[in-house]
């Protein structure tokens, strides 16, 4: 009876480890989806409301988009507290603070950082085009992330479960 409980525990732990390892792929897809939604909101707020970026950022931060909301909240607060610093420095600090320890890849972060370096530096039409371009780049990253998730997640979960079964057989 004890051996059966031990075998089931090993099998469950191995499967759980597989799910834990693959969670980084799911998280990356989730973060990219949030960012794309935030880009849509940013574009529409810029075009239709024409408010300052601090107000637009505060509005987006209240949309409940997870880490994307946290990023825009942080930028909004920093723009209000430190109006003498440029948006680019606030944006880069916010991206590093919010997304620095996430499952986003360096290429994802580079796209996100590129957005901050261009916001507020051109007219409304130029900013609209730039946000649309960054959104397209993020959509490309999202399709890659989904493909990688589908491919690697199944393999890793299967290997973890097979490893658990192997350990049970060896017992």
Task: Record keyword descriptors for this entry.
171 residues, elongated, mainly alpha
Could you walk me through the main structural features you see in this protein, from its secondary elements to its overall organization?
This protein has helices at 2-49, 53-61, 67-81, 87-99, 106-118, 124-170. The protein is mainly alpha-helical and 171 residues long. The radius of gyration is 21 Å and the shape is elongated. The mean pLDDT is 87.
Produce the secondary structure layout:
Elements: H1 2-49, H2 53-61, H3 67-81, H4 87-99, H5 106-118, H6 124-170
Q: What's the total helix number?
A: 6
Head-to-tail CA distance between termini: 14 Å
Structural class: mainly alpha
The helical percent reads over 70%
Low-confidence segments, given as residue ranges, are none
Strand content is under 5%
What is the assembly state of the chains in this entry?
single chain
Apparent shape: elongated
Q: Measured on Cα atoms, how large is the radius of gyration?
A: 21 Å
Q: Give the integer mean of the pLDDT values.
A: 87
Question: How many DSSP-defined strands?
Answer: 0
User: Secondary-structure element order, as H and E?
Assistant: HHHHHH
- Main sheet characteristics: none
Question: In a nutshell, what does this entry contain?
Answer:
This protein has 6 helices and no strands. The chain is mainly alpha-helical and 171 residues long.
């Amino acid at each position: 009876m004890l051996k059966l409980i031990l075998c089931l525990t090993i099998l469950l732990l191995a499967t759980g480890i597989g799910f834990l390892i693959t969670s980084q792929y799911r998280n990356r897809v989730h973060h990219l989806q949030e960012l794309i939604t935030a880009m849509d909101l940013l574009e529409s707020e810029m075009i239709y409301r024409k408010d300052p970026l601090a107000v637009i950022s505060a509005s987006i931060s209240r949309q409940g988009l997870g880490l994307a909301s946290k990023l825009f909240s942080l930028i909004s607060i920093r723009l209000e507290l430190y109006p003498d610093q440029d948006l680019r420095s606030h944006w880069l600090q916010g991206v590093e603070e919010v997304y620095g320890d996430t499952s986003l890849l360096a290429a994802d972060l580079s796209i996100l950082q590129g957005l901050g370096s261009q916001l507020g530096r051109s007219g409304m039409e130029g900013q609209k085009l730039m946000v649309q371009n960054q959104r397209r780049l993020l959509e490309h990253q999202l399709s890659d992330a989904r493909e990688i998730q589908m491919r690697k997640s199944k393999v890793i979960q299967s290997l973890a479960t097979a490893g658990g079964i192997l350990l049970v057989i060896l017992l």
